[in-house]
Design brief:
The structure holds two protein chains of two kinds. Chain A is mainly α. In chain A, 71% of the residues lie in helices and 3% in strands. A two-stranded antiparallel ribbon of chain A has the order 1-2. The chains are: A mainly alpha, B mainly alpha. The interface between A and B is large, with 32 and 43 residues.
Chain lengths: 637, 510
């Protein structure tokens, strides 16, 4: 695979990253001086990147389909021996759609945050981190090799950590930030080792060279490399078994949850797998693992999401579950790559829409997040209600909203896998659709309909200001139309990246039946939820059966992590500390004392007298001359 | 009487040196003919112009590869690169030397015999913008260094050695503060320097006796000829090496370094740490690679032992230093050891790596000493380490910048300290000198301790009553610091352009 060099307008793609990065630097370094206008600079920087992104996108469209890629080598980043890493960028159809998603949705969320963070004293810093995130995310999708990707990967991890713990004086936010950071490290270590493996086996990390040479590797090597990349992807995207950090990340300000933990960063794992499609397609076992992770996670997300009462956590578990669908798609391979990307983009719109809607609700309700304490908000928040409804209908897959066009094909593709596993994955996806409809409807009804269940200090809910509702309206439009628009255009657009669509296997049940089933199950789930929660719900947690209790406890995954990793980890640490204190420190301290002692003794030779200096030089000269002569006479060597 | 055949002279190739020497002579005339008050700006401008013009002349002839004036001067890749390096680093040193706003009357005193703090001294400091003879002296020194790296016969090399050493001895004696310490340092430097020069000259005589010629190509031809007396060769090589090892501050010929670095006016210390190092290693490279290439297997172990000793002495003694300038002096000794490791690779990577290291280290050390000039109390610079405790609270920008430079010295990635160490160590492994690299890495770890101790003191201590203030640097010092820090960062992140430049230059002519 060869990429064309960037020419014309496309040679400016580095600006996409540079603009938000410079803006972040300005906001951080100017300090309080930028407090008055800093947030507008932040918005402007992302908007400028969006406009540039549009220009580049359309110049890319103007090229021949075979030529649709632009590689820009900025400088030789690492050059050691045979190892060369470019500081290079690649703007191809896949990167293009991500750039538009990141900067487009990013601009709207930045705008929204101007209103949302208005009374926060740290607003300038917030926008600096937010810009930093956008720059890092763009680097992640625009790099032309895995090291660049890793650079961006760590950058978004940093920004995510900073923003989750943005209100770091709250212990829960600080803990959530740490949890996200630690769990991400597990995934990042996998990704890093995967990249080392590329160095070791292929001698390069440039995309074109890696993908061109994958066929030369043994299938075990590909499997291990792919599993390591998958570990990285699972960490960043909150997939099983590294899903536990994502719901806790909701401790950050709501715009952060919308942009980073719903629309963009958490989809980086999907991007990684889609970008590495040559590696993942090369090994069927690998694909099966990806599909299984996706299917398992989408069910976990749905089940836990149905039992939660915190509006943002329900949405977070729904994100986990929707990304599970995307993993399912990229794991299926072939034409399903494009389907996963379409779902990713559509999800970016409707999930950002709902998160911002949730933020708007919290804004009008004194930061209340418990859905048992909402109800009937439709009356007070017309715009929030209407736009949230679009997001809700989209995610549960009601035609003709976007979720229908993006999710239904993935379910259908799962049924087309070609052997008995079609049933397994297809039914999981279908069941997930029903559960999604159930818990999202529960969320929607409890929040906007039914009787009012407000707490004492929340008697007067109010609609949010214009600056917050306008982004909501635009995102709602995206939730309505994006799926249909993309389902016809995107597969062809991405063909240069994923290759032509192969003839797929016969579906185990007819396509039309799947479509009908999908809608029926969704409507059934939604109807059930509507019936159950239309009259409100109990204000306290009620005793419940085994399944619900398990779901409330996150299916005991936290307990599992604690028992299997945390406790043994603590014991291991204690043992190591003991060993360190007794063994290693003794050695180290001994060496340190030795160095210090000899230093003190050697210092005495530095008397300050010229005569002794001259003597030491003379001694040195005698030794040097003597050594040379000794060598010459054959005494030494 | 026969016609005397004059050697042909390529003035173009010599132009950079001629410009500096000419400007230095003009500078002396300015001292004589212009009024005291206007001398400083004139001299400063002249100095900048001369260095810049010489640098342009170096750039113009970047592709010249020739030997001129009857074999006395070789203008080849390393010459051009190292001359350029000396000029750039010299320009930055000149900025530090020209600074007059941090201290009343500047860091140099014109009449050293006046008692410090007396009426006359105060009057002198108030009236005059300080000693201006430093500029022509600096230009002479820089010119001598440029000739030193270009010298293609042993006598020219000796003359160049003296031309740049004598002005440095003088410059060391001119500190306004701690005048006696400064004069003592200059005298020590002079005595020991003469001693080392004598070794060098004696070595030249022995090598002449061995080869019957003084040009490096004649020596080379004689070295590969097995018929001659090897005793003369090895004794001569050893003594020439000793002369150069002294200038490069390699153990056990480094003993002058801490005293002189501490006593000399700090801008001059910066000049010595950056430019003298380039000149000394430039000449060492030329001697070893051009003249004595034929006996490389014989001198490699001896010089290798010296490199090990130097790294150990520099690192170990740095641990217990209590004075900032002495700490930096020992760090400079250890760095000379790392440079020698690069030299002993004895391959093209070694040559290019050493040249890269010289430039990278030069910028960092200029910035470090430049910052030392800013921490002051009523008695001038406060160089005792204890006085620096808690500066991070009082002057965060200063402390952060200094921390960055210390991290560069410690060889942390994303600084030039990492890339340059990597370059020389990589070359040495390639050249089969893994044992030197092992010692190098171990001593780097030792050295990290004193650096990080300073970082800890800067940031984790509370500032006390006696914590000195950080002066606001004048324009010149600020510019020098910005250049030094920026280069340290840039060469750490994007070393490729300079590495390519050194690779293109890594070929001597014989």
């Amino acid at each position: 695979m060869e990429y064309a060099h960037a020419t014309g307008a496309l040679s400016g793609i580095w600006l996409l990253i540079a603009i938000p990065l410079v803006s972040a630097a300005i906001l951080l370094f100017l300090g309080k001086r930028a407090d008055k206008w800093g947030h507008w600079l932040g918005v402007l920087a992302v908007a400028a990147s969006f406009v540039l992104g549009l220009i580049f996108f359309f110049s890319l469209r103007g090229l021949d389909p075979e030529q649709r890629s632009a590689e820009l080598s900025l400088w030789d980043f690492i050059a050691v021996g045979n190892l060369h890493v470019d500081f290079g960028l690649l703007f191809d159809p896949l990167a293009g759609v991500f750039v538009l998603l990141i900067t487009g949705v990013g601009s709207l969320i930045h705008l929204y945050a101007v209103g949302y963070m208005e009374h926060d004293p740290g607003r300038r810093k917030f926008f600096a981190y937010f810009n930093l995130f956008v720059a890092a995310m763009l680097l992640l999708v625009l790099g032309n090799n895995y090291v660049m990707l890793y650079f961006g990967w760590e950058g978004v991890g940093l920004a995510s950590y900073l923003l989750i713990s943005f209100w770091y004086t709250r212990p829960s936010a600080a803990t959530a930030g740490k949890k996200a950071f630690l769990m991400n490290r597990v995934g990042d270590a996998g990704l890093a080792i995967g990249i080392f493996m590329m160095f070791a086996t292929l001698g390069t990390t440039q995309y074109d060279e890696v993908f061109g040479n994958v066929s030369a590797l043994s299938s075990t090597t590909v499997l291990i490399m792919g599993l390591l990349l998958l570990l990285g992807a699972a960490g960043k995207s909150g997939q099983f078994p590294l899903q536990a950090w994502l719901p806790d990340a909701m401790e950050g300000p709501t715009p952060v949850s919308a942009l980073i933990h719903a629309a963009t960063m958490v989809t980086a794992g999907v991007y990684l797998i889609a970008r590495s499609n040559a590696i993942f397609t090369a090994n069927t076992t690998l694909q099966t693992v990806v599909v299984s992770v996706g299917a398992l996670t989408l069910l976990i997300g749905c089940i836990i999401g149905a039992a939660k009462d915190d509006i943002k956590r329900v949405l977070a578990w729904s994100t986990v579950s929707q990304i599970g669908y995307m993993f399912l798609g990229v794991g299926l391979g072939g034409g399903a790559y494009a389907l996963a990307i379409i779902h990713l983009l559509a999800h970016g719109f409707f999930k950002a829409n709902m998160f911002l809607g949730a933020g708007s609700v919290m804004h009008g309700m004194h930061d209340q997040v418990d859905i048992r304490r909402f109800g009937g908000l439709r009356k007070y928040m017309k715009w929030t209600w209407l736009t949230f409804m679009m997001g809700w209908l989209a995610i549960i897959g009601i035609p003709p909203l976007s979720g229908y066009f993006s999710k239904e094909p993935i379910i259908a593709a799962a049924f087309e896998r070609g052997d008995w596993t079609s049933w397994l994955y297809g039914m999981a996806a279908l069941l997930g659709a029903g559960l999604t409809a159930f818990y999202m409807t529960r969320l929607f009804v409890l929040t906007f309909h039914g009787p009012e269940r407000y707490t004492e200090d929340n008697k007067h809910p109010h609609e949010s200001p214009f600056i917050m509702t306008v982004p909501l309206m635009l995102l709602a439009l995206g939730s309505i139309g994006a799926g249909w628009l993309m389902s016809t255009s995107v597969p062809g657009w991405l063909e240069p990246v994923f290759g032509p669509e192969e003839a797929h296997h016969e579906a185990v049940i007819p396509h039309t039946l799947i479509q009908i089933l999908g809608i029926v199950i969704s409507v059934a789930g939604a109807g059930l939820a509507w019936a159950m929660f239309r009259r409100g719900t109990a204000l306290q947690e009620q005793p419940a059966g085994v399944v619900v209790t398990a779901a409330r406890r996150n299916l005991y995954t936290d307990a599992f992590n604690e028992a299997v990793f945390e406790r043994p980890g603590i014991y291991l640490t204690r043992a190591l500390v003991y060993l360190d204190n007794r063994g290693i420190d003794g050695l180290v301290n001994g060496i340190a004392a030795g160095v210090g002692g000899s230093s003190g003794r050697l210092r005495r030779l530095q008397t300050g007298f010229v005569r002794s200096y001259a003597l030491s030089m003379l001694t040195g000269a005698v030794v040097v001359v003597g050594a040379f002569l000794a060598i010459q006479l054959g005494w030494l060597a | 009487m026969e016609d005397l055949q004059l050697p042909s002279i390529d003035y173009g190739a010599l132009l950079p040196m001629l410009i500096l020497f000419g400007a230095a002579c003009v500078g002396i005339l300015i001292e004589v003919f212009t009024p005291r008050r206007s001398r400083n700006p004139i001299q400063l401008t002249l100095g900048f112009l001369a260095v810049t013009a010489a640098f342009v002349a170096v750039i113009v002839q970047h592709s010249t590869r020739k030997i001129t004036i009857g074999g006395a001067v070789a203008v080849d890749g390393p010459t051009v690169f190292l001359q350029g390096a000396i000029l750039v680093l010299g320009l930055v040193s000149l900025m530090l030397i020209g600074e007059r706003s941090v201290e009343r009357g500047g860091p140099f005193v014109s009449q050293a015999a006046i008692t410090v703090g007396s009426q006359k001294d105060l009057k002198q400091a108030g009236d005059q913008p300080g000693m201006t003879e430093v500029y022509p002296l600096t230009l002479f020194a820089l010119g001598g260094m440029m000739l030193f790296v270009a010298a293609n016969d042993l006598l020219t090399m000796f003359i160049a050695l003296e031309v740049f050493s004598l002005p440095l001895y003088l410059l060391c004696a001119l500190a306004r503060r701690r005048r006696l310490l400064s004069q003592e340092a200059a005298l020590k430097y002079f005595l020991l320097g003469s001693y080392a020069s004598a070794f060098f000259l004696f070595g030249v005589a022995l090598v002449y006796g061995f080869s019957g010629g003084i040009s490096l190509s004649q020596v080379h031809a004689a070295v590969v000829d097995p018929q001659r007396s090897q005793i003369l060769l090895y004794a001569g090589l050893a003594m020439i090496a000793i002369g150069l090892l002294f200038k490069a501050a390699l153990a056990p010929f480094h003993v002058w370094t801490p005293d002189v670095y501490q006593g000399a006016p700090t801008p001059i210390t910066a000049l010595m740490a950056a430019c003298t190092k380039v000149a000394a290693f430039g000449a060492l490279l030329r001697i070893l690679y051009v003249a004595f290439d034929g006996v490389r297997w014989d001198f490699q172990p001896v010089l290798g032992a010296i490199a090990v000793l130097t790294m150990l002495v520099g690192a170990i003694l740095a641990v217990t230093q209590t004075d900032m300038k002495r700490l930096l002096a020992y760090s400079s000794v250890a760095n000379a050891g790392y440079l020698l490791v690069g030299v002993l690779a004895l391959n093209e990577e070694g040559l290019s790596g050493t040249m890269f290291y010289l430039v990278a280290y030069g910028f960092s050390v200029l910035a470090a000493f430049g910052m030392v000039t800013l921490v002051r109390d009523a008695d001038g610079e406060a160089t005792h380490l204890a006085r620096w405790a808690g500066l991070g609270r009082k002057s965060p920008l200063f402390a952060a910048t200094f921390t960055f430079i210390l991290l560069a010295f410690a060889g942390i990635p994303l600084t030039s300290g990492f890339t340059s160490k990597f370059a020389v160590f990589g070359a040495a492994v390639e050249g089969g000198q893994t044992w030197l690299v092992i010692v190098g890495v171990v001593t780097s770890m030792l050295l990290a301790f004193p650096y990080l101790r300073v970082v800890v003191m800067l940031w984790l201590s509370e500032p006390g009553e006696s914590t000195p203030t950080v002066s606001i640097p004048g324009f010149l010092t600020s510019a020098a610091l910005v250049i030094g820090v920026a280069a340290t960062f840039a060469l750490g992140v994007m070393p490729a352009p300079l590495i390519d430049l050194t690779r293109d230059a890594a070929q001597f002519v014989r």
